[in-house]
Write a structure and sequence with these properties.
Shape: globular
Largest sheet: 2 strands, antiparallel
Distance between the termini: 48 Å
Helix content: over 70%
Number of strands: 2
Strand order of the largest sheet: 1-2
Number of domains: 1
Mean pLDDT: 75
Low-confidence stretches: 9-18
Strand content: under 5%
Number of helices: 10
Radius of gyration: 20 Å
């Protein structure tokens, strides 16, 4: 009897130790992801979901946990970028108001799709984003028409084409909320290529939008019951620290290097997720 109790205790300690080691390993991975992703204004939702899903967690729970980490990590970066005045609050309001609604419904309707299809949808859109970031940016602005107008922020001038930005932003918010990513993977290319926003301002603005989209998507997933706070809280703390450090580094890197990092990490995430889905 005593021997059986000792063996049971030993087994319990072994399982507990393994769980703690797994959490520490995942925290380190989340921290590293947060540093790199925050530098490019993406938040890291796609990599958070990827890392959590590859650890054996179901895709729906991974998406919910990933968005909770995003809310915490992007909050730290948003505060820092706001102090450095590289966040365009007009764009935050314009784009954020649309993604807020579409991301919520994306998270709410995530149950409609199986895990495999969520991963394939995720990979497809991330791959498109990686290709777009390699495209040269046209600096000249087109003449205004009934569906477009210019917006000023400091010394910078952007052009808002409603026929382009409304459908793209709504689709971005919906897909981001459904899959559990930040939306920065698509919003940064949109701002740089379509609106001619400089890279650093796009990073600062996207980081704030990431927090908005992640919050809406998280609430949608939460209403579906996909949340484990015991897993999410320690990972969110790691993301918070990594997000702050990543924001600091973003202010020091040149725009061209940030674009290359963005494209490379997007492509890697898409390839790994396809392999994992098949």
């Amino acid at each position: 009897m005593i021997l059986q109790k000792l063996l049971s205790l030993e087994k319990f300690i072994s399982i507990l130790t393994n769980n703690i080691m797994n959490i520490f390993l995942m925290c380190f991975i989340i921290f590293a992801i947060a540093v790199i992703m925050t530098m490019t204004g993406r938040g890291g939702g796609n990599f958070y979901v990827l890392a959590i899903a590859l650890s054996g967690i179901g895709m729906h729970e991974a998406a919910t946990t990933g968005q909770f980490i995003l809310i915490v990590s992007s909050l730290a970066a948003t505060i820092l970028f706001g102090k450095k005045k590289i966040t365009d609050w007009k764009l935050v309001f314009l784009i954020g108001s649309m993604t807020l609604v579409s991301a919520f419904f994306g998270g709410l309707l995530s149950n409609v799709f199986q895990d495999k299809w969520l991963k394939i949808i995720f990979a497809f859109f991330i791959f498109i984003a990686s290709l777009l970031m390699l495209k040269p940016v046209k600096k000249e602005l087109s003449p205004n028409n009934r569906f477009s107008f210019k917006m000023n922020s400091g010394t910078e001038t952007y052009q808002i084409n409603l026929l382009l930005i409304i459908p793209v932003v709504l689709l971005t918010g919906f897909i981001s909320g459904m899959v559990g990513v930040s939306g920065g993977s698509f919003l940064v290319p949109l701002m740089i290529l379509a609106l001619r926003v400089p890279m650093h301002i796009a990073v600062g603005t996207s980081t704030t939008l990431v927090m908005v989209t992640a919050s809406a998507g998280f609430l949608g997933h939460l209403s579906s019951g996909h949340f484990d706070y015991k897993l999410a809280i320690p990972l969110a703390v790691a993301g918070l620290i990594g997000g702050f450090i990543g924001a600091k580094l973003a202010l020091k890197f040149k725009p061209k290097k940030l674009k290359l990092i963005f494209a490379a990490t997007s492509f890697i995430a898409a390839v790994i997720m396809v392999i994992n889905a098949l």
